[in-house]
Fold:
Amino acid sequence: MLLPRHCGKWLCIIIATCFAINAAEKFVLSTEKTINLRSDDGNIAVYDKAMPEWLTNSTEQLFTEGSRWLYQHPDKLANVVQRGEEKLDWSAPLSPDFFMKTRLWIVMKRLMIGFTGFNDYMAYQVQGMMLRRGDSPTVVKGEMASHDIVCRIFLSSGNTSNSEMMFYNRKGEVMQPVQKKFGRVVLWNATLDYSMKQPGFQTFKTEYSLLIKLSRDTKKLQQELEYIKKVRDHENHQKMANFPTYNEKGNQYTNEFFEKHLTRKFYSRNGGVISYFDGILNETELTTLRSYLITHNTAYSNSGFSTAEDDDGDNVSWIAMFLPESLNNTRMLDLVKGMARYLSGEDDWYPYDVSLNMIQGTFHTRIHEDCENYEHEYTFLLYLNPNWTADMYGETIFLDQIQDMKYDKKGQVIQEKAYETIVSVKPKYGRMAMFRNIIPHSARPPSPDFHGTRYTFAVKVSRNKIIGLSKILRELLEFKSGSNDEGGKLFVNLEEMAASFSYTMPEGVLLENIKKYREAKKEVMNQIRDYPVHSILRKKFIGENQPTI
Ligand SMILES: [Fe+2]
Structure:
């Protein structure tokens, strides 16, 4: 799982706000309605004072920092089925059992009694939802004669995104628009049609909300619990599954083999190579690999994206990370190492970063380099979308930087970076690219007409095992950057070693520290994830071993 960019910030908030949460245990609930619309088609009630702000904040954190989301865009090859009437790609299902132990349920229950006159409604389906500019949520059709209730809690403010939630009557006319105000709770009869409007063009940020379906029918709750169990079983099964080896092994990837499959080769102005190859894996091998990769982490982490002008990251928000050692004894590793050998003439390449990158039309990808100037590395890419056509865009573009940033004495920019394009690689299914990763490059987002995800499997390799392990440890320790403890000092030490090409740390010490800091990072991740969980749980359930998402 990825470490959220602002984990340090959240750890500070955890400490700083624990007093506020204890004090807020006695929050006062108001059932005052901002909108109270009653009609023959169904009723709508909007509450603005029902949730204390800390509870909304904690609920938002549950879904934004360290939380796991399911990508559910339909994909026949990988047997992915879209769930939910709104037809949104991402959802974070929450167990209704867990939800009904939270303080949110206290709020809901009070509102429900006022709205329906009954006190035996149960939350049978609870999901975190996200909506971005470029998503296409559909109008959800109401269920005739249903006694169910639906609830939405807005966890982001729509005031600045120029969008709203819309209710329709049976004639298809707008019945009531509702602003997406932070902390606002909306209840309506499930008989009504509604739609969540996507944010306006000027909006970069993602809008989060919580969708809760309520019923007096216990069968619905049972069905949802079975679904949640299925999702978890699938996740556990995929975690245990090994990387496909294609049941064949052996270093069959000679230089002649790559020569035969090479489609084109280019060089940057600095002599760095960019190459791509076709026809290496057959249809069956590709399908096996693709199905494994895109369902391996059915729960992805969102690392967000940066809008800062001087950021040098790739801005890929959704990545499924694999341990580099998961490639051990696979033909994929032979292939990647062989390709690097063919291009470089060196034979000791070692993978330090293995991932599946997901890029959607709504993304804000950036031009970036994968390594530092003093590093000598290659990046391997495998494109994993069948039937890709030119009008779906999504190329990988490679550039020469012909001009750097310049600043005046006051630190004001007087010259921007400038680039010239070297080559643009179409992400054809099964195509493999390999390049010196100091060359500036960027993935182009797919066309707005393409509603799925552009998948690339990426492996970055270092010059030998010691350099590779040092890089794994250095990247692992980034969360310690700036700290003065043992991990922080080790991070600085590793940076200095890389910059001076003096890799003095023995393999055993590197492996030992990788193990140690993987555990430490997992612990930090758990703390970040557990904080909002503990905040929203009712006191008597805190400490229960209750799975959340
Ligand atoms: Fe990159």
User: Anything to note?
Assistant: Residues 242-463 form a domain with the Jelly Rolls fold (CATH 2.60.120.620). The chain has three domains: 1-27+464-540, 31-236, 242-463.
